[in-house]
Amino acid sequence: MAKYLLLKHYRGAPAAANDVPMDQWTPEEVSAHVKYMKDFADRLKRTGEFVDEQALSPEGTFVRYDGEGRPPVTDGPFAETKDLIAGWMVIDVETHERALELAAELSAAPGAGGKPIHEWLELRPFMAAPPCITE
Amino acid sequence: MDEVLLRSLTPHVLTILVRRGADFAAAEDAVQDALVEAVRVWPDNPPRDPKGWLVTVAWRRFLDATRAESARRRREDLVEEEPAPGPAADVDDTLQLYFLCAHPSLTPASAVALTLRAVGGLTTRQIAQAYLVPEATMAQRISRAKRTVSSVRFNQPGDVATVLRVLYLVFNEGYSGDVDLAAEAIRLTRQLAARIDHEEVAGLLALMLLHHARRAARTTADGRLVPLAEQDRGRWDTQLIAEGVDVLQAALARARLGEFQAQAAIAALHADAQRAEETDWVQIVEWYDELVRLTGSPVARLNRAIAVGEADGPRAGLAALAELDPGLPRYAAAAAYLHERDGDPATAARLYAEAAHAAPNLPEREHLTRQAARLNTQLRA
């Protein structure tokens, strides 16, 4: 089994095919979208492939060290220029193909007009534990 | 409370229940109930026959749990067909459990989880911790696995190769977490080897023992990888090595070579060298030839190329490497090593950096990054 991170972007990923902001959808479409995501996670829990998921607040801040005795520097009011991560899901699956399949399925969540969003999800493998037998 | 005793009795008790006609999942639940009861009762009132006690309590729990009319009818039919319950012989009851838990209808991950649970007697929580997943996730994996094998007939002969693959996976999973999976895999493989006379079971056991023997020397206290050539050989466990070599020699004497024996033979040749320079690389190349012949594995070919580089010089190693697919895991790391030995630190540094980028785990990435950094520092000087 190998763990993968599914990253959902607010912004920063290539544009989705059905790229309509969520606040322009009908309430039913929003509910259908939320239900799709929940059903997806529930199904992974039953298959034993679910590890974790968290949503993130849209507001992010870049922070850096600014020298001894000085307060950290933050990047000011330019948040709209950065990539923004909406949330993540961690899955633990048998193969890379399975990870791709699940990511594609999540990307097919319904959006405006009840049609799949086709949003781009980022798929990143976790670093594994070192094996006992290497040479 | 003797936890090791309890754990070693679990598979026997489970097997007896399944033999008597309990389906696998129900039997497993009943055995768990009996274990909980044992933990409660035994400290004050230890049984004379722990196994008999567990069987009796587990069977009672199973009967309680399956009171439904249909279940009873089915059970009675099954009991009628089965030999009367009595003191079951130890012979190979657990063996059947190994085969069931590694059944080909299960995915490797499910087979591993079920084996650790049913044969190894680990708790779901312990298995979940070892694999860094939530307990609920592991519980689902195990219960799905139980459902998958619930229709498998218990007397169906199993496939030794599948069982060995599962144990190999458990061993290779490393030693993170509270449960030492490598030690657990050795314990289970020892049990298997005691029950089944098979050269590849012995080969796998030898392989595990020989690698486990070098465990203390493989990393520094702060988790850095130490390459084989630089390991402090005084920290190798000579007793485990001696045992591994004995097990291997007995297996090889039967002249039915398999991949685990070949891998163990390579590990034994490394273990045999008092100093890295004394390693018998010529023989190691011969064993890699066997391994490639047996498995055709690209990883074996890659390791063979490195061994050729040691036996016949880096040029020969690079020539062997050139015949392989550069997309192979650790190809860049192997090429980097051989180029450095061939006196080309600039190429080696570039390849080490490339290898670090593609490394599948953190200790390996850090090790390769340090190698690249070492060469780049040399080149600047």
Describe the structure.
Chain A: Belongs to the YciI family. Chain A: It holds the Pfam family YCII. Chain A: Residues 15-108 form the YCII-related domain. The complex is a heterodimer of chains A (135) and B (381). In chain A, the strands form two sheets. A four-stranded antiparallel β-sheet of chain A has the order 2-5-1-6, with helices on one face. Chain A has a two-stranded antiparallel sheet with strand order 3-4. The two termini of chain A are 21 Å apart. Chain A is built from two helices and six strands. Chain A has a single domain (2-125), classed as Dimeric alpha+beta barrel (Alpha-Beta Plaits, 2-Layer Sandwich), CATH 3.30.70.1060. Chain A is flat. With 135 residues, chain A is of the alpha+beta class. By secondary structure, chain B is mostly helical. Chain B has a domain at 1-85. Helix content of chain B is 70%, strand content 0%. Chain B is built from 20 helices and no strands. Chain B has helices spanning 3-19, 24-41, 50-65, 69-81, 93-101, 108-119, 124-130, 135-149, 160-172, 181-195, 199-213, 215-218, 238-252, 259-272, 281-295, 298-312, 314-322, 331-341, 345-358, 362-380. The A-B interface holds A 1, 3, 45-52, 92, 94, 127-133, 135 and B 107-110, 131-134, 136-138, 140-142, 144, 168, 171-176, 182, 207, 211-212, 215, 225, 228, 263, 266, 270, 303, 359-365.
What is the topological layout?
The complex is a heterodimer of chains A (135) and B (381).
Chain A (H helix, E strand, L loop, with lengths): L1 E10 L15 H21 L2 E6 L7 E2 L8 E2 L9 E10 L2 H12 L13 E5 L10
Chain B lengths: L2 H17 L4 H18 L8 H16 L3 H13 L11 H9 L6 H12 L4 H7 L4 H15 L10 H13 L8 H15 L3 H15 L1 H4 L19 H15 L6 H14 L8 H15 L2 H15 L1 H9 L8 H11 L3 H14 L3 H19 L1
Helix pairs in contact in B: 1-2, 1-3, 1-5, 2-3, 5-6, 6-8, 6-9, 7-8, 9-10, 9-11, 10-11, 11-13, 11-14, 13-14, 14-15, 15-16, 16-17, 16-18, 17-18, 18-19, 19-20
